[in-house]
Specification:
Elements: E1 2-6, H1 10-22, E2 26-30, H2 33-42, E3 47-51, H3 59-68, E4 75-79, H4 84-93, E5 97-100, H5 105-119, E6 126-129, E7 132-135, E8 140-143, E9 146-148, H6 152-163, E10 169-170, H7 171-177, H8 189-201, E11 210-213, E12 217-220
Parallel strand pairs: 1-2, 1-3, 3-4, 4-5
Antiparallel strand pairs: 6-7, 7-8, 8-9, 10-12, 11-12
Helix pairs in contact: 6-8
Length: 222
């Protein structure tokens, strides 16, 4: 298993690298945000361990950049910021787990093992609602066998709806998970994209799949 550690405290970094090596892991180490981002973007890792407070580019910014290009590597955040709001912010940014400093090395190992087990589960490669199908391996969408061309943001929007099929998806959920906004920009960006999506996957197919739940949000169902 290959792990990337991004930690600006070099003594702490050496200690973690040594401990992980002793437990059979191969570790790449970066002490600055920009170096860690470069390694994460250009290499394949089973897990990334990332300090939140980093010089240059902070940990949350790195996570958001990785998730924006669909890097799905599990990320464990290390931070001295232990308030609930800080943890929530880290997880919403795209982190998979959050460990507060100081911590026991045995707990760090246990969390690493848990994330690696989760990462080894076979990922879902296809989504389907009625005769609408999405292939997550080659990023294609078809309805009734007819190929539908979607722009990247439209694809992300449809993927999120399909992952929550039959359930109401609120505007806040869409802003946070499709646009990576932690605030409402007070624009009609969601309505515009939903309208474009409907014109591509519902128009001329006879049955509308995307439903508006007035005053709440949207849902997709057969």
């Amino acid at each position: 298993m290959k792990i990337l550690l991004i930690e600006d405290d070099r003594e702490t970094g050496k200690y973690i690298v040594k401990g992980l090596n002793e437990n059979g892991y191969t570790v790449d180490y970066a002490a600055e945000g920009k170096d860690g981002l470069y390694l994460a973007m250009n290499n394949s890792y089973d897990l990334i361990i990332m300090d939140r407070m980093l010089p240059g580019i902070d940990g949350l910014s790195i996570i958001k950049m990785l998730r924006s290009v669909r890097k799905k590597t599990p990320i464990l955040i290390l931070s001295a910021l232990g308030d609930v709001d800080e943890k929530v912010e880290g997880l919403k940014a795209g982190g998979d787990d959050y460990l507060t400093k100081p911590y026991a090395f045995s707990e760090l190992l246990a969390r690493i093992e848990a994330l690696l087990r989760r990462g080894n589960e076979i990922p879902e490669q296809a989504l389907q609602v009625g005769n609408l199908k999405m292939n997550l391996e080659n990023y294609t969408v078809t309805r009734g066998g007819r190929k539908i061309e979607l722009k990247p943001r439209e694809f992300r929007l449809l993927e999120y709806l399909m992952r929550h099929k039959g359930h109401i998806v609120t505007r806040t959920m869409l802003l946070e998970n499709v646009w990576d906004y932690n605030f409402d920009p007070q624009t009609n960006v969601i309505d515009v994209h939903i309208s474009r999506l409907r014109s591509k996957i519902d128009k001329d197919f006879g049955k509308e799949l995307i439903k508006t739940v007035r005053g709440v949000g949207y849902k997709i169902e057969q």
